[in-house]
Design goal:
CATH topology: paralog of FGE (formylglycine-generating enzyme)
CATH class: Alpha Beta
Distance between the termini: 83 Å
Number of helices: 7
Radius of gyration: 28 Å
Order of helices and strands: HEEEEHEHEEHEHEHHEEEEE
Helix content: 10-25%
Shape: globular
Oligomer: single chain
Largest sheet: 4 strands, antiparallel
Mean pLDDT: 83
Number of strands: 14
Structural class: alpha+beta
Strand content: 15-25%
């Protein structure tokens, strides 16, 4: 059996023992605090590292799903690479007609709402179409019809008055280039200004409706049967944090845009195409238009957005004033047929903002 010799080391003085104990306790508390900090950081909303050149180049502590760009300190856009030039898209689509580059020629006879037959009879085409629904998904708001009876609708609408329409419309949501994400958090006034800068104007609601539904006034841009996969619709609604959107150019707004966004880049849904070749008219984002009704506010939203809404061609949202802006609101532009318009600048919205000069809108 081995015997250990008794230790010859002298016990530490009381002051040294107390110091070592304090250090050990402090180290343990430090580790606990660090662990708590890591947990809180993981749960916190993202904070940008830089806002240089209008681009978000990083985030802390949790990486955002998308790279966001702040345009003019007001609007948000996801950085992306254009799928093709506007000229190439024009050639592939074959719908430009005699309109400027990147626009679609829209021409034909638009069916008009019937005049009231009696006092209180205010039937509209939207209301008439509801009577031709063969199968309802839901009759509660937002009501959604799975399929409309085309033959019944054509018979019902054949004697409606019509109006000749002829104009040019952006093929995609602003900034109107395939593969590029739309601007969001834009007011009616700001949308009008951005269109005017390109020598265009904001579409009126009749133009938007006709470009969506065509001469038959069909309920969906792609026809009479609702196709949930054709356009970006029916995504689950996410509660929003209103205070995070103020100021709208701040890091909290960017993080909230990233959390809420469920849309897609322009033109990536090939079946979400109207009879004239205009894309993404239902779903994705709401689009500002100008009212054609006398005596009401001019700011009208068309098309619905990515959430579980009606997303037909005729319905509209008429409850917001011109200064209203929200996380799913954007626009597209129109122009009178024959108007002379300069070619809008191609926007480089991909990669490192320092790698290529950005146009004025993104500086």
């Amino acid at each position: 059996m081995h015997r250990f010799a008794p230790s010859t080391r002298k016990p530490a003085p009381p002051r040294a023992r107390a110091l070592r104990a304090a250090v050990a306790v402090g180290f343990a508390l430090g580790l606990a605090s660090l662990a708590l900090l890591v947990v809180r950081l993981a749960e916190a909303p993202s904070v940008p590292l830089t806002l240089g050149a209008g681009a978000i180049t990083g985030s802390l502590p949790r990486r955002l799903r998308f790279e966001w760009r702040l345009v003019r300190d007001r609007h948000w856009q996801i950085a992306s690479s254009p799928a093709e030039s506007r000229e190439a898209t024009d050639q592939i689509e074959g719908t430009r007609g005699t309109c400027p580059t990147g626009m679609v020629e829209v021409s034909g006879l638009m069916k008009l709402d019937p005049a009231p037959k009696a006092q209180g009879d205010l039937r509209s085409i939207d209301e008439m179409q509801r009577t031709t629904c063969k199968h309802w998904i839901s009759r509660d708001y937002p009501e959604r019809c799975a399929e409309f009876d085309r033959e019944k609708w054509l018979s019902m609408s054949k004697d409606l008055d019509t109006k000749p329409m002829h104009f040019c419309m952006d093929r995609y949501e602003y900034p109107n280039q395939k593969g590029v994400y739309p601007f969001i958090l834009v007011s009616f006034y700001e949308a009008s200004e951005l269109c005017a800068e390109e020598g265009k104007r904001l579409c009126d609601e009749a133009e938007w409706t006709f470009a969506c539904e065509g001469e038959e006034a069909r309920p969906y841009p792609y026809g009479y049967v609702r196709e949930p996969e054709a356009c970006v619709v029916d995504q689950a609604w996410r509660p929003y944090i209103e205070t995070a959107l103020r100021p709208r150019g701040g890091p909290a707004a960017m993080a909230e845009m990233d959390r809420l966004w469920q849309g897609m880049a322009a033109g990536v849904q090939p079946r979400c195409r109207s009879p004239f070749g205009v894309y993404d008219m239902t779903g994705n984002i709401d689009e500002w238009t100008r009212s054609v009704r006398e005596g009401e506010r001019p700011s009208i939203l068309k098309g619905g957005y990515w959430g579980p809404v009606r997303t037909r061609c005729r319905p509209s949202t008429r409850s917001h004033d011109e200064n209203h802006m929200f996380y799913q609101q954007g626009f597209r532009c129109c122009a009178d047929h024959g108007a002379t318009i300069g070619v809008p600048a191609e926007r480089d919205v991909s990669g490192d903002p320092a790698a290529a000069p950005l146009p004025r809108e993104l500086r």
